[in-house]
Amino acid sequence: MVAIVAAMLEQPQARPKSRLDPSVNSHRPASGKSQDISHVFASTFKDLYTKDIIGKGTLSNLIKTKPGRSSYHDKYIEELQQAYSEYSRCIKEADMLESHIIQARARAAATENQDYERMKEQVEGVDNIQGLYIVKSAFSWCVDKDLLELNNLISPQDYLPTHKPRVKAPAAIKLNPAKPTAAYTMHISREPQDDGYTLIPSSEKAVTEMNESELSLTFQSSSDTPKRKKTPGEKPKQTKARLKWKDELSAKDQVMGLEKLLKLKDGHSFLRNPRFLPPNAPQGVRSLIRPRTKAVKAERERKGVEAQSPPDDPVPIFLANPPVVVFTDYSVGHVYEITLELKNLTSTSRHARVLPPTTPYFSIGLGRFPGEGGVVAPGMSCKYMVRFAPDSLADYEDFIVVETQAEHLFVVPIVARRPPPILSLPRVLDCGYCLIGGVKFVEFLCQNVGLSAGTFCIIPKNQWPASNLRFVARTYFTEQPPFAVSPSLFVLQPGEATVVEVVFFPTTAERSCQVFTVVCDNCQVKDISIEGEGNRIALELVCVSGEREPPVVGEVHDLTADHFVRFSPCNPHSVQQKTLIIRNNVHLELPFHWQIMKPNLHPLLPGETPEPSHIQFHLATDDVFHVSPLSGILGPCHDQEFLFTFCPKELKDYHSVCHLVLRDVPQLPPEPSENRTLQPVRTGSNVGDVIVMEIEVKGSTEPYQVLLEPYAIVIPGEVFISTSTHRQFKMWNHSKTFIFFQWERMNSTSHIIEVEPSTGRIEENECFDFNLIVTGGKPERLVTSLVCHIEHHHEPITLAVEVSFKGPILTLSVPSVDFGLMRLGEQSQTTLLLTNSTQLEASWTMEEKLNSQQNHEDTQILVKPCGGLLPPLASCSIEVLFRPHFSQKFETELELTVENGTGCHLSVRADVQSPQVCLLNCEMLLTDLYIGVPAKGTVTLFNQTLLPSHFRWLAQLQGQQASLCTASFDPTSGILGPNASTEITVCFTSHTDLEVGEVAALCEIQGMNSPLVLGILASKTKNLCVSYSLPNVCSDPDDESPSTLVLNFGDDVILKRAVTKQFLITNQTPISAPFTIEAEYFTCHASKPSNQAEKRLPYVKKPLHSFQAKKAEVKTQEEFVSSLLAHGKGAAFFVLPNTGTLGPFETQTVDVTAYTDIWGEYKDHLICKVGDLDPTLLLMQMTVTGCPLYFQMTGPRPDNQNQGPTIRFGAHVSGGDTVSRSLRINNPTVSDIRMDWETYNIDQNDRKLVDLVVVYGDAFPLKDIDGNEVMSGALRLSDGNIQRTWERNQTPSSEGTTASLQSATDGEQEESITEDDYTSGLYSAPVKKKLLSVHIRPHVGTLSDYPYSITPQQIVIPAKSSSTIHVSFTPLTLSGSVVETSCVGLALGFMSLNSELAASVPGKVVRAQGLGLEPVRIDLLAAVKPAVLLVQMEEDEGVLEFHASAGDLLRAKSEKELEVQEFNMTQTLQLRNTSEMPLRFRLGTQPPFVVLKPHSQAGTSTSSSRSVVLQPQHSVQVKVAFHCSLSLLDHVDQPDVEAPTGVALISAAHGQRKLRFQQNLLIHYSNNSLQLVPLRALLDLTTLCLSSNSINFGFSYVGQTETKEVNLYCHGAHTYWKSVIESDEGDSHVFRVTPDFGLLRSQELHVSRCCQSLQIRFTPSEDREFRATVVILSPLVKTPLTLQLQGTGSFDESYRSN
After folding, report:
1. What separation, in Å, do the N-terminal and C-terminal C-alpha atoms of the chain show?
2. Which domain of life is it from (predicted)?
3. Is the pTM value of this prediction over 0.85?
């Protein structure tokens, strides 16, 4: 791999072609690149050949490794060096041999080229000598035979015959070897042959073209310019006369030979096959991709006639695919192939010859032809495989030449380009700063951000360009002092990164910059600059903290110290510090450390220099001076702060020197040399420690001074044993520095004395507070002293102490114990706290103090524990237990005894009693009792003692009537406090209506032997009572009748809208009772719908969407309402709650909701049943308005039920056909509804407000299918009676019969309704049919069935079904002045019930019909517009104008014959329908105008009757033609009276005349309306005139011709004319008109006048007078022109002209 990379780096760019390279006609020698077969090995052996086993860099690094590791390693390195040396020698020899062979081939090629040119110059006058002479190879004369044999290679002498040394030829004999023979002419010569088709160019032209083509092929990719050819006009340079060869022909003989050759070729001339002719030749083969042109009939001469020049654009023969062969994404060592296809574009088979590329990187394989013989048929292709074997990743360009029969060569370019790699390495690499002689390593990240991989080499700028990069990139580092870069050779894939390491080793204190070149394997070069700056060490002492004390005069000091620092006097072991700031003036970090040395004290005289022997370096041993930080790094250009510390240990003076030493300071480098190479940096080789600064320090010491205040402590009074006593004192430090102290502790068997804190530090001139702690062990007086030791002080300090101690004391927490009131049989216990307030343990005992008469076993007091040992400053609990034996007032005394201390006495008291409770009232009287309703009363329990007493009431009553009643107590049990009372609530329930008097209740008291007895007395019980009322209505409480209560739902209840009313049921008693409520007639049996979401099945996991939930809820509500109205009565009253229980004194709110699905006035009763009371009837009434029907197209409209849809018929043509719309009406009710429709027209100017409608009989009677009225009877019952009550589940019976229904209370008795029932308002009277009715309503419009109408006018919509009506609109017929009219109307639908039973239910519902109801309204809108089309012309003049010329009627059939041909002038216009309605029309006009068939477009249709239907917003193109014929010219001479309408003759001032034709384009619409489009045509006429009406020649000599001219003028249209000479006397033969026929046409644009000059010749035949008339005839001019001619012949010589 390294060898391959080196080979790539050897060729940075393509070498320009040498001037000595041979031409394309000779054999091209192979170069080192062209013979490179590495790609063959790479494609065959793949990784085995291209894999990098051991690279050059690896081998070089192995040789340079440090020896001495082991004997085996040294032996391996030695053998490796020998192998590497042998390998290098072989490589050098191979490179030398390869270079020698390449140079020999180049010299041989140059020699052969010179020989070829010399032979070419010797042969003159021959077009092509290629093939006549073969230049012998000169390679064997240029290569070193011995060198080849020495390297075991084959030399040319091994395979070539032995040749004699080349000797220059003798003088040539006149011989022309280029003389063509017959065989040469027919088979070998490339000179064009005469075949009778192609003109043969001259020989000079052929040679020039050949040279041009050769030059273009040879030097196209080369940067060198070929030598310019000599032109005939240039003078040749003066050269020596060319020597002639032996037997060479003379020039004359050569010319004769050429002439004989030409004669021979003429004898063999034959017609050439068209396939061998160029495609652009006249007889050549036509191209398949270009249209054929008509051949020009022209005669060509065989010789001497120059052919026409070929066209500029040559005709292609072959087409290349691809047109440019492009290679991308290639690598070295591989071969890439692309197929080149050449397609024959001519109509005959063709030969194709492909010349290989000129560069060695591209090659071409053998062609694959569709047939045999290398011939490509028309339209077929031949294919060539183009191979590319790059030796580097550079860009390559070449071409392939395709030779055909074409005049020009066909070139296919070849391009090889790959996207270059891009490095992220910056242009400038800044290494920063480094000390002179040092080495600095800097790393830079280098990433390939390009799209392809690359191998890169970094070399110095001065080494580029390099002849061979192998030697440049051998080392790992590439060096250009003071910089070195590694790696010098690296490979990066796309996106891959590596680290480039730069080594900087400056030698001078200046900024350095070097330029390196980065060379890529794709032959791209980039320069980068590396910069760095060398520095010298420069340190400076900026300042010293504190006062600077210079050395005293005469004071000894160090010989070499730079600076002096003195510390102030201090105590031993104290610390003094000074801060020194040292500045680093270098841009680098400097590692340092400090050394404390002894001073070199040697007295010197002023100006004396210390000797080196006096300067010695010895470390200081006293260790009193310290520097912090002792070591570290000085930041670049940064101030470093150092802390100098002085710590003396003894009372004496100290003197030292501090050396600042820099570590690893490089030595100054030697002088730079050209052959110096970068050596590895070794530790200690060229770096060391350097002292850069010396600072002299001095210091002195003095003793400590300490004082106590007070010097002795005396504690007055007595101190408890084991109790600590504290006293305060101070210690003063008057020393130069702080002190450390430590107090001794006195710890004897009896006492403890100590000081806190025992150790510490006191600053200079400050005091410290101490705490003396004294603890005694036994009662006595103590006098002693405490000792304090001062650190580094020669003697301690003492403190005198005097104190007295005493014994311990025990105390009780309470002085006495009182157990208070106690219940006999119980025991009481209390806890006492015994405390030892001293530091001593106390032994104690406690017991009852008994009289001598008392026995210890009969005691009632027990103490636990009765004795023990109490620790110092501790406490313990003592339990005292009292157990009384009888009721008494108890008193006694407990005695506390302390060992070696003072005891105390504790008094104990108690009061012992038993419980006693009573009732304050022994009887309870209850009034206002209700059966089964609990009655409450209260009794009082009183506790007569101070003891809490527990009571409990028995649930079972006692007495004779105890089974007829029950009682409960609250609370049933409890505890009474001392002397307390409590109220007991007694709930007594009687289950009989008798008086209760023999009942008692018992209460047990805990601790009492007998219970307490309570007597109960009760009066007679009462029954249930209920009242009804309306909410928010104040009713009279005395009026208990519910008949006055009315639930009025309103007089304007909207249909299908639920209305809810409320009423209240109040229980006046405490008796609970069940209740039921339901309607009497309009009953319903359904429960209130629950939430739909709660009914969802458990397997539905996802919650419903809000919209879905709402939709489901609406659907559930609709199903619920439908179930309520399923009985078909039109209304239903839903009661909630309809059942329940009415609690004691409870008021229940009842919601009554009315649901309806049909209009009417409703009345009904609400039946309320509470407990055992009789049912109560509540009156309900409401009036429902609205329409139950709805239209399918709009759906139900809850808010506006009577408003139907708005029908928009749109815009229609005036007088058009009737348009109908269908409307579907749905009836969701259970009754058939009849609708009678009326249509009205609305006039905006109508000022009428109301309509008075008088109706006799039924307003809308029943009609049959034909619309005739059907008689029907009135709605009545047969016997005039109606039923009083209705069964809940029975439907009404048929009309005309009496229905008897059972009563709700008495099922067998029937009752008839009287007139009182009608007057009472409970039931309505039967509806009587009105004979005459008057209605007043708002005015809505004028009743009319035109233009709107509805069929059928009367329709019955079945129940639960639908019907359809048809709304029709008949467009109005507008007058001529009206542009557009809007038709606004409406339709009213009046509803009636088709069943008389549905119209009225006596006493329950009455429904209005017809005019009594608000009708259903449908709004009707339409517009009527006239039929008008928008006419769009090219010119907006309002007239479609035609211009024609009468001259276009004539056509020249031959030179003397004319024919008349009629023609049409066509104009186009657009007809656009701008309305919203389709228009049907047909077109027409009058001659001479003709309407051509309209051009159908999208939106138009044409019927068989030649009418066109144009859709809205669409247009149609109409072509109108003006038919010009010769008959139109007949109107020119007609008088104005006889001329047809619209035809007029227009004369201009210049003699021009025009015929104007005016007609109209007629647009006939389907509604018989007519639209006119003006048409106008102007026909230019021809006007002829002569410049003179007569010509008189006078006298003319007989036989002599006289000529005169006359001008024939034409105005207007051009025309053909001819002249005729007429003479009555036969004299026409002496006159002649020239020309006698012609065309008069103006040659200029926009000029209508033209002139023709006529020559009139007169040749008299005899001496007399001649007369004739010239008649000018034209088919376009009705009246011919005449020219009178006159002349006289004479023999008089005077009239004869010379």
Report:
1. 110
2. Eukaryota
3. no
